[in-house]
Every structure is written in structure tokens, then in C-alpha cells.
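>> received
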Amino acid sequence: MEKTELIEAFIFDCQTRGRTKHTLESYRGIVKEFLNLFPDPGLVNKHDLRGFLSHLQKRELKIATLKTCFSTLSTFYDFLIYEEMAETNPILPFRRRYLDKPTKNDKRQLLSVKSMKQLIGSIEPIREQAMLLTLAKHGVRRDEYLCLKDENIDLRRDEIIYPQKAKRNNRVLPIDDELHEILMEYKRWRAKHETSQWFWVTTFGGGKIHKDYTNEVIAYYAEPLGLHEPNGPLEKRLTCHCFRKWFTHHLFAKGMDETSIMILRGDSLRGKAWTGSYLEPDELTEQIKKEYSRCIPKLL
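>> returned
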């Protein structure tokens, strides 16, 4: 099978298995680069894999990126074995030896409540303040928050229903008093600018904001406060993902139980025998809402 045909067959297989468009494009790029260097994957040995790892390391890629590359290649070899084009998966032992090691510096920054309050309070534009307050109060992933539409925001019930995503189970998160007031003010601003269904819109044109804009906003306001070093190590940079860590840590610090935090984070409860009776799909129990109101820090 020609290289292009092999890649497309692999991508089609992954698509059939429900992989997202973003994941498919990532798979395509990694496998294409690998096959450019090693046209016959059935002949690849540990020396070739060491060479490929060295080839990637010369770009100064982060360890997490390297792990993603070889995880993709492992998925590719699983496909080859299933299609009877390979007998073994050489990535598994190689990955255990060279990549399955603790990453000492892979520690994201954790702000105190005081620092988060200082950051939110330093923002004057209502859109930007609403964006960061939503991230802090809900701890959602960037793509979950960016895909919000106006219809997802229910200020009457004080709930946001996040779009269905592969990594999110529970989609409903409560809106506390602080977030309610800020979202009300933002909706009034949005009404003067929106030309689309997206909740977070640009000032000019009213379309959906760019995926990188939120991190740009965080950096702009956090750097003068000493909360962000653009070229510093991971633990000195402040990004959207740090808000998820902040959300989780401070709910736990206030005494919320682990399972309630998992539900609010949208994590899977697979393996817990009582899950079915604990929570209906897309519905928060009153107990969790009360716990959330008690534990979520005040920021305004």
C-alpha cells in the first residue's frame, strides 16, 4: 500500500472510531512525518525509533508533545496489527523505556484566592472580565468555554449548559451571584456587538473570538501583576488550564468532597457502582449546588 493510501486508511479507521477532527489532523501530521523517514513501518526497529526521538528532540519539543507523538505512533501500529500489516507494536517497549518517566518541571501555576481576586479586579472591559471570571468559577477546558452559544446561558435558572464534548460528562454548572451580575452586564454589551450565535464575540464584526484570545487576555493582565512570565518555565506562566487547576484546588481546600468536584469538572465516574442513582444526565443535585455555593471563592 502506498504511503498516502496507508495514511488515509489509518485516518478513516480513527474517524470511524469517533476521534475528533482536531485529533485526526494531529494524527495525520505525525504519521506522515514518521513515514517520510521510515516508508516501511514493518521494518522499523528500536534504533530507528531512537533516531526519530532524537530528530524530534532537536526541535526542543516538550516532553508532553513527545509523548503525544509516540502515543499516536502506537495507535498507528495497533491499526497495522489489526489490518495484518504488522505483527508487533515496537512503540510500547520503546515508550516505557524512554518516555514513561515523571516530568519534574511539568507543574502548572496555582494562584492563591487573593492573587486571582487581584487579577479579576484589574480588568476593566466587561467582556474580558466575564471571560476570566467564568473560567475561574467553572474550571472548564478552553474549547468547552469557547464553544458556548447564547442559548447555553440560563440566567433565570442560574446555570450554564456546556456543549457536548468528548472529555466532558456532566455539562451543567451553576452560576453564583458574582458570575450572574457580570454575565448580565456582559450580555448587555454583547447585544450591541453580536452578529452570531456564539456567546463570546469580537468587538468588531461580532463573530466568535479567536481560540488564542483568552490566553492573550490572561497574559496581558497577569504580567504587570507578576503572575505571568511569558518566556518562563511552566510554573511561572498563567494560561487557561491554570484556572481549571485553581478551581479544583480551592473547592477541595474548602472541604468539598472529591466526587462532587469530579462531577463539576465533568470527569467520568466510571467504575463507581452508585453513579446511576447519584446523578441524572445533565442535572446537578441540590446538594452539589449548595456545596458549590459554599465552597467557590468570592472574587469580586
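>> The radius of gyration is 22 Å.
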